[in-house]
Description:
The complex is a heterodimer. By secondary structure, chain A is of the alpha+beta class. Chain A contains 6 helices and 12 strands. Chain A has a single domain, classed as Alpha-Beta Plaits (2-Layer Sandwich), CATH 3.30.70. Chain A is globular. Chain A starts with a strand and ends in an 8-residue tail after the last strand. Among the domains of chain B are: about 180 residues, 3-Layer(aba) Sandwich (Rossmann fold), CATH 3.40.50.740; about 260 residues, Dimethylsulfoxide Reductase, domain 2; about 130 residues, Barwin-like endoglucanases. Helix content of chain B is about 30%, strand content about 15%. In chain B, strand 2 and strand 3 form a beta hairpin. Chains A and B meet through helix 1, strand 2, strand 4, strand 5 and helix 5 of A and helix 1, strand 3, helix 10, helix 14 and helix 26 of B.
Amino acid sequence: MAQYGxxxxxxxCTGCKTCQVxxxxxxxxxxxxxxxxxxxxxxxxxVKHEDGTYTNDVFTYxxxxxxxxxxxxxxxxxxxxxxxxxxxQDGLVxxxxxxxxxxRYCEMACPYGAPQYNHEKKHMTKCDGCFDRVEQGKKxxxxxxxxxxxxxxxxxxxxxxxxxxxxDVAPLPNPSLTxxxxxxxxxxxxxxxxxxxxxxxxxxxxxx
Amino acid sequence: xxxxxxxTILAPVKRRxxxxxxxxxxxxxMASSALxxxxxxxxxxxxxxxxxxxxxxxxxxxxxxxxxxxxxVHTKDGVITSVESDNRGxxxxxxxxxxxxxxxxxxIKGRVxxxxxxxxxxxxxxxxxEGRFERISWDEAMDLMAxxxxxxxxxxxxxxxxxxxxxxTQGYRTDGQHAFKRLVNMIGGYLGYHGNYSWGxxxxxxxxxxxxxxxxxxxxxxxxxxxxKLLVMFGYNPAETRMSxxxxxxxxxxxxxxxxxxxxIIDPRYTDTMLGKEDEWLSIRPGTDAALVEAMAYVxxxxxxxxxxxxxxxxxxFDEKTMPAGAPxxxxxxxxxxxxxxxxxxxxxxxxxxxxxxxxxxxxxLAREIGTTKPAYIVQGTGIQxxxxxxxxxxxxxxxxxxxxxxxxxxxxxGDMPANFGYPVPTLPSGSNPVKVQxxxxxxxxxxxxxxxxxxxxxxxxxxxxxxxxxxFIISYAGNALINQHSQINKTxxxxxxxxxxxxxxxxxxxxxxxxRYADLLLPDVTTIENTEVSSDxxxxxxxxxxxxxxxAIKPLYECRSAYEMCTMLAQRxxxxxxxxxxxxxxxxxxxxxxxxxxxxxxLPTLEQLRVQGPFQILAPETGRIALEDFxxxxxxxxxxxxxxxIEIYSTKLxxxxxEWTLREGDxxxxxxxxVTTWESHLxxxxxxxxxxxxxxxxxxxxxxxxxxxxxxxxxxxxxVWINPIDAAARDIKNGDAVRIFNDxxxxxxxxxxxxxxxxxxxxxxxxxxxxPGKNGVDMGGAINSITSQRPTPLSKGNxxxxxxxxxxxx
Lengths: 208, 811
């Protein structure tokens, strides 16, 4: 089975959120539904010295995440209707809105926050890898929109040959849970999955 | 979270859309969408169908971020469906790389189809500022405006007509501001201003150091970074201010990746330019950069790290040898730094540590690094100069490349902001302004209330020594400086609400902005997506220039008209239509001027090709990318435009100004660039009541105040005041709490972003949020200018909008 996936280079990303907004524009998503979200992860402390000066060990980086079209998705397992399914031809995980009953079990199961409930449509929605664009030989809208050229998309084996296979970067969960089709390019500030020195700094912006 | 979304984003939109649109929109359309976009689009589509199926047209995002990103607007049956940016080619070759729009440009559909859109001309019916208007016809509107202009000119004179600063639509070459200024110049002119809110102090101050021969922003290109061994950035933050994927941030990150140059960034915020791309971040108290520079100069001088030969040959005033005749003894830079000058204070690292908040050993380390690494590219952003001592700071930063001779060579810069190419697309000739006197851009409210007091030596007038008339007639085109972007909203509000002062206010815009509420006459402009134009790449595209076509994607919504059409109608009423139009429609001016451009540059495609193919890109020539390269090669032949022809560390002109001008108490102008403690610095006794410094910054979520009313952007980037966890804990403030920020000038309400990314004692708030008046002068909209001061800076009389002492508390 073919498997497409994403590459996210956190050393290039500046957290501008163009990927999130271009996705919303192209897919006409309402407020509150974000198929791509940009997590601001950071931490560090300040020390005040006797002379009133400061030093710090502050760090931050952004992590743009949509759906990772996992090899062993948690969402499809949790779906009672079969609406959430993994496509044979490209490994993309999509939801059939006509079948979905909106029980939101997939939302609870996914460790990446990918399935998003649409209150207008009353069913789940999520990143579909822009499979219609991909079928036309294009990249997903978010990839083409990135001003910093921090994102890539393609057959995951090709991406891994090019970029490696790390996905164990905070604030992401342990990749062994769902085997995400995702590669993270690390930066100088990167912390490993499970890191306790930082936290997600922008909870309202990512729907937490 | 859901609660926050409802309160902050959905509720106002829903309420507005219901109130404003329920009559205009069919019930089915309303029911199908929680947001008004589709409803507005479908409500207006019927009358505006220009195509029966789908099409894609080139346009651009035309706002004041400095870039001009390409947009491809997809429409179906005359309604915008989605917006893509530049996706041409393989994006591999620098110079032909895609001019990718950021999140603002990608959300432009939300600006075109927006419940705030002005639909038809309106005149005020309530008190000024109340926001009550009634619809009138275009003929009535143009008659009214022409009559008021004629009255103003005969009663007071042309010098009482004023255009406020406005950059909400930027980059027009044949429309907008150009159209209005052409018209008003033809009927006798207007009171002009010099400077601008972005670069008021840097552009005024640096010519005293580097001369006036070159444009003010004339540093080296960002591309030169790749030739440097060390990169030092004072407040330079392209990731949040120069966001285009075809512009400075892309070029900057490319240069960094290519060379791996060691990068040190000095800023009170851990900005999005950093994120691990920097080698070191030094957090500094706002307004104290000059003290840091002076302490580094102390280290360099005492450790013999200055380039004495460069200072002797190219500069005036480093030491006794190069001081001009008549200058005071020990008035030179070296004496000032070593404590032999007027203040008898040695500018030691320990002295600066207390002021800046940077440990002395760090200052020594940085000084040694800059003193021993060549070439070093030293650059500043321009938030740094929007301070009460900004002119001093901006000149002081330039002392680092000057002291080390890092000027005019590959991999160096002058310390200015970086240069950009900017392809010279021709503009509609606007003629010359018969009114010669100009006010500093920031003193327009003063020119309403105390014009009779203002002179060249008290208030920085240029082109004249005094004002004959106060401002009586205001035109605000695509601007929000009338209330939102000017300092001290509560004071501005009183001044512009008084109908006996400024007697008539015309606002021309796309949306009902906070400024638009203060109009006597409201004129609805077309959006750039509805207009035709050939624009350039802007002023932040790095070494890539472009000629950018705008093709109307949809017909103008409602009764909106372009500024050129409005001015043509006004010209009729002044009997000068033929003179104004020269027989051309707006489209014909675009064609005419483009034909002229092509005659000069044969590389340009035909206008038809340009409109089909999208932006035409041209890389800047390889030569001329290094600032002052010619001067470095031959300082006699290429002498600078300073009195001495040299780089003036000690400025002869500033010495004269310091003697001649009358300054406010506490203000100083000095011939040397030096640290000056100012009002509302962290050392001001006022800190007892208002202990925190508040600076503004450019948020990713809008461009100044443009795009603020687009819900997807408000969702993507939370408007929150950045506060350090230490300061937040002392006030029991948690991330996401509603807070009030206040001082003796006003109060604003916003959410708190509690983050270690801002140094203790300092807070930062993204500028440009729309002022939303609540009770007792409290702003509910998070507009920073509720807090800022109208007190001008000493030299340029510019905007100190990042100098604020405040307190914060839970709301």
